[in-house]
Amino acid sequence: MPNGNIYTGKHRMYPKVRDCVIENVNKRLALEEQNMFYLRHPYLTLEQSWGHATAMGKGKEFIQRKTLEKEKWMEDVTIESRYATLNNKDVWDC
Fold first, then answer.
1. pLDDT tens digit string along 55-89?
2. What is the rounded (10 degree) CA torsion for 3, 8, 11, 17?
3. Nearest-CA neighbor of 41 among 31, 53, 33, 29?
4. Please, which residues have CB within 8 angstroms of residue 11's CB and are 6 or more apart in sequence?
5. Alpha-carbon distance 14 to 19, whole Å?
6. For 33-50, how does the pLDDT look when each residue is reduced to its tens digit (9 = 90+)?
7. pTM of the prediction?
8. Residues with Cβ within 8 Å of residue 52, at least 6 apart in sequence
């Protein structure tokens, strides 16, 4: 056994590398390589990607969805509207 704590420090014990760990690393590297391939060779070119969302009408849908979400919430509250209830009897303002 090493000196001190076996999980930290200069004399820690490292777990042995097993076959399943190597297989998992190889799978993750293959997946990363596939993702990088798709990033290097996109479906659309740069010229095609500019404005394709507006051509499909996605901007209008987004604006409509946001206005519907805003209608569900309460109106904006101002300080004047909060303090309006305290302003009911101002006798000294003759």
1. 777 888 888 888 888 888 878 889 988 888 887 77
2. 120
3. 33
4. 2, 3, 4
5. 16
6. 999 999 998 888 878 777
7. 0.44
8. 44
Q: Tokens 């290097």 — which residue? A: 40
Q: What letter represents residue 63's amino acid?
A: I
**Per the structure block, which two tokens stand in for 93?**
């303002």
Q: Return all residues near 92 (Cβ < 8 A) that are at least 6 apart.
A: none
Measure the CA dihedral 75/80/81/82, to 10°: 110
**Euclidean distance between CA atoms 13 and 87, whole angstroms:** 74
Long-range contact pairs involving 2-6 (C-beta distance under 8 Å, separation at least 24) = none
In a 10 Å sphere around its CB, with 0-12 CB exposed, 13-18 middle and 19+ buried, how is residue 70 labelled?
exposed
